[in-house]
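so the lab meeting is tmrw and i was supposed to have these ready like two days ago... anyway. pasting both below. for each one the top line is the aa sequence and the line under it is the structure tokens. i havent really looked at them closely yet so no promises
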Amino acid sequence: MLTAESITKYYPDGIIIEDINIDVKAGELVSLLGASGVGKTTLFQILSGLILPDKGDVFLEGEKITGHPGRMSYMQQKDLLLPFETIINNVSIPLQLAGTPKNEAVATASCYFHEFGLEGCEKKYPSQLSGGMRQRASLLRAYLFSWKLMLLDEPFSALDVMTKSSMQKWFMQVMSNHSMTALFITHDVDEAILLSDRIYIMSGVPGRISHEVVLGGENKKDPDFLTSQGFLEYKKQIISKL
């Protein structure tokens, strides 16, 4: 579904990322794992079309989209919900921007509120919701913007440990129910193992893809998965490569 070929980006003080090659297949969740400052967000800005690479190209379903924004959704770390709009109006914005009349957009968005755990929040404002609930709303808005592919930039990093764990389990279920496809930035090794089908490890200066880890068919919904031998082996393997 998504292919990036030989992506390189220069900044005035040097090269930030160099010769990045990745792909994401339909229905996959692929994580981009690496330390802060390695160029993960820069790569996302290029993939989403917000900035141009100095070398390389981006393809979505075989079509070259380099430098053309609006072809996939991009959810950043902050929820970026409009504080003066209700949650239902915030979530339905992508549909309205696509030309759907407001009443119809609101009705369509409302159909997803139960599954996304937002039922009863339609008329509330962002300031009235917890961090986890705001992230649910932000994720639904991203999904309605582009159900084909979502770029998720550390969406759970600002949440406390218990909320984050709950959101991860919920997110896995939503991904499965809707056959969603996502590329997910994280610097949390445990999160990458739990959520991903594959993991690209970024490292170095400039940032490059140093390794790819393919995860097997473990039952990640098993409550004991995070303490299983398989999980620990993956963690040991990944930490050795970081």
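ok protien two:
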Amino acid sequence: MKVILLGTAGYHPNERRHTSCVLLPDQGVMLDAGTAVFRAGKHLQGDSLDIFLTHSHLDHVVGLTYLFDLVREHPLERIRVHAAPEKCRAIDEHLHAPLLFPAKLPFELRALIGPTELVGGGCCRFFELEHPGGALGFRLDCAGRSLAYVTDTTADPSASYVEHIGGVDLLIHECYANDAQQDFARQTGHSWPTAVAQTAAAAGVGRLVLTHLNPLLDASIPAWLDAARRFFPNLIAAEDGMEIEWG
């Protein structure tokens, strides 16, 4: 089973990274719909797509407006967008506002109220994260393998979400700030490298990938990794287009 990191930046894209979007082509699943959605067409396999949104901040949902081109490149019979009920309402009211986007977008909104069975097999579960306006994390269990996706929250080994990601084979976790920006990260609901590494260690995960990276701090990422590996050695920084086998 493969996971493709289509977009790995937070807030805005740069020449190297687009904003958050992760594709699991075997399961027909997309996690978040940032500016990298346009890259998904060449990787899609089936005739349906389930998009799970952590929250409705623009860097995570603007790619929904790119879906017309996506379905031209790879026709889909069904696209379902899953999000918390209030996030569904925000998307329907604002992205579908005629003065913002002049056509009804080709997806069905589904409010998340419990585990979701996946078309390609397995199950996606959600859990709450602390972030301004609220956010969700996701855990996918498929064919005896597991993956967790956690973004837009402040990593902490004692955080309530740690129990939900315990023992996953692969953790994809946000890391927008650096270790010197801990106050900024806490104020804005984001994470820094050593806290993410400590959280991964506390959760007993197999591998860790840092994503939702600050597009202004690319040059400092190697130093982030050196610091974080003191607490969790098996980690890498995400790159756009990176493919990882997780099962």
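from a quick look at the 2nd one: The chain has one domain: 2-241. The radius of gyration is 17 Å. will dig more after coffe
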